[in-house]
Design brief:
alpha+beta; eight-stranded mixed β-sheet; five-stranded mixed β-sheet; 30% strand; Hydratase-Decarb/MhpD_sf; 2-keto-4-pentenoate hydratase; Fumarylacetoacetase-like_C; Fumarylacetoacetase_C_sf; lyase
């Protein structure tokens, strides 16, 4: 079996060189713990280039997506300072492979969260702000085809994220928060917060509890992207994507 460091370097080279690779599952990746080790290696290479760890992100948080992938659990990744963009930023698509974008509810933590046993109530109590987010996913695998373990190793397809400018203290029932996704002013998707594990804070709790296996926790000041509220849409040249969440404001990214 190929060693973890080699797999991590292969994924990092694919990202930095915008050259997709064959899935690692075809090269012997068959273990969940090893997939997360590869992920940590990928993130470590980014940190070695001077980036900072600024939070986490969830994937496969909807039951429909899990069924489509043939899995019964979400996955998580880590996000770094080099992935962050301001709302209204213009992305250069030549720096990405096959980007897709999805709207999310982001949690900015005021206190750390450490499992096991973290609940939705714990997440809400530890959250300083929530805001709309756009998460640009960009699998490093050829043809955007991969297994659950491949996606974990690829750091949950992390590429770029942007947060809305309005930071709102969590209030009301975020499961009922409405979301509208527009491309060039045309509504293409809509959903509610409950699309993410019944409540978006449940996804944050899931990550906090899973991190126990690696002796880590979600830190104060981190942003956690709770998972796609809708199906991802391709990010195309010249397009502008806007996510508007009821009571939370909006966030926009453009592409060229």
């Amino acid at each position: 079996m190929t060693d973890v460091a080699t797999w991590a370097a292969r994924l990092d080279d694919a990202a930095t060189g915008t050259a997709p690779i064959a899935p690692l599952s075809g090269d012997g990746l068959t273990d969940l713990a090893v997939a997360y080790e590869v992920q940590r290696g990928v993130v470590g290479l980014r940190l070695g280039r001077g980036e900072r760890l600024v939070g986490g992100k969830l994937g496969l948080t909807s039951r429909a997506k899990q069924i489509a992938m043939g899995v019964d659990r979400p996955l998580y990744g880590l996000v770094t300072s080099g992935m962050a963009r301001n709302s209204g930023s213009l992305l250069l698509l030549e720096e990405l492979i096959h980007p897709r974008v999805e709207p999310e509810i982001a949690f900015v933590l005021g206190e750390p969260l450490e499992g096991p046993g973290v609940t939705v109530a714990d997440v809400l109590a530890a959250t300083r702000y929530v805001c709309p987010a756009l998460d640009v996913i960009d699998s490093r695998y050829e043809g955007f085809r991969f297994t659950h373990l491949d996606a974990i190793a690829d750091n949950a397809s992390s590429a770029v994220f942007a947060l809305g400018d309005d930071l709102v203290e969590p209030r009301g029932d975020l499961a009922l928060t409405g979301c509208v996704l527009e491309v060039d002013g045309r509504v293409v998707e809509s959903a509610a917060g409950a699309a993410v594990m019944g409540h978006p804070a449940a996804a944050v709790a899931y990550m906090a509890n899973q991190l126990v296996a690696t002796d880590r926790r979600l830190e104060a000041g981190w942003v956690v992207l709770s998972g796609g509220l809708t199906a991802p849409v391709p990010l195309l040249p010249g397009s502008t994507v806007t996510a508007t969440l009821s009571g939370l404001g909006s966030v926009t990214l453009g592409a060229e």
